[in-house]
Amino acid sequence: MANLIQLNNVYKTYTLGQTKQTVLHDISLTIDAGEFVAIVGPSGNGKSTLLNLLTGIDHPSQGQITVNGSALQQLNEEQLSKWRGANVGIVFQFFQLLPSLSLLQNVLLPMDFIGTLPKRERLERARHLLDLVDLSDQWQQLPSQLSGGQQQRAAIARALANDPQLIVADEPTGNLDAATADDVFALFLRLNQQGKTLVMVTHNDELAASASRKIVIRSGRIHEDQPTSVLTNSGQNH
Ligand code: ADP
Ligand code: MG
């Protein structure tokens, strides 16, 4: 399997006034295309920071990050946002749908931003993606008219808009009840089986065990990095 994400000796230090806090220490990591990686660890230990670095939302203080062939440190902010729009789908704990836009418009946004498809095909694709996440009847509704699980499924449809190889999710089931969390997780599993690479922070051990690999972050370091016993689309029985 091709190497999709590579981090070499990555550090992240936040500066707040006179105080410096190093929250990631010497992280080196390779993730192959097709993997489903669960990132776990206590709160405040650097998991979200790590995701922000590998999506180019934030920058490492030291070290190199390459994703899908792009060395992120070589891109300026404008190039990074285009790159991110085309290559990464991001799913957040609190969905982050735009409240004044319908589900359809929310899913259209990333496609409008990239502008690859003609307008009519964007509409068709948005409807198709909402159908894929079982929201075909809700396309005209506003996020506030939907349940948490429905909003998160819409956010997943939005993450898929530009057909990215990589989906990154930060505690995507953290704000959902158990049954709804299972549904949303099943959708992620299906996407992985269809070939998407998934990197997901989760507090749910059961869900983490269903990924193909579990990385434990403690105090900003990789504490543990192990395959789980799940058979994934990479074809290896770990
Ligand atoms: P986790 O996702 O594991 O809960 P985070 O990556 O959000 O952890 O945070 C790790 C540490 O970095 C925490 O101590 C947090 O307060 C700090 N931190 C996170 N983001 C920032 C920021 N933008 N500026 C300063 N400190 C931050
Ligand atoms: Mg976090």
Structure notes:
With 238 residues, the protein is an alpha/beta fold. It has one domain: P-loop containing nucleotide triphosphate hydrolases (Rossmann fold, 3-Layer(aba) Sandwich). 33% of the residues lie in helices and 29% in strands. It is built from seven helices and ten strands. The strands form two sheets. It has a six-stranded mixed β-sheet, with helices on both faces. Strands 2-1-4-5 form a four-stranded antiparallel β-sheet, with helices on one face. β1 (3-16) and β2 form a beta hairpin. α5 (148-159) runs parallel beside α6. The protein is globular. Magnesium ion binds next to α1.
Ligand names = adenosine-5'-diphosphate, magnesium ion
Count of folded domains: 1
Distance between the termini: 14 Å
Helix percent reads: 25-40%
- Write the CATH architecture name: 3-Layer(aba) Sandwich
* Average of per-residue pLDDT values: 94
Strand content: 25-35%
Broad CATH class: Alpha Beta
Taking Cα atoms only, what radius of gyration do you get, to the nearest Å? 18 Å
- How many individual β-strands? 10
Oligomer: single chain
User: What's the helix-strand series?
Assistant: EEEHEEHEHHHEHEHEE
Question: Quick one: overall form?
Answer: globular
Low-confidence residue ranges: none
Strand order of the largest sheet: 6-7-8-3-9-10
State the fourth-level CATH superfamily: P-loop containing nucleotide triphosphate hydrolases
Structural class: alpha/beta
Main beta sheet, described? 6 strands, mixed
**Which fold name corresponds to the CATH topology?**
Rossmann fold
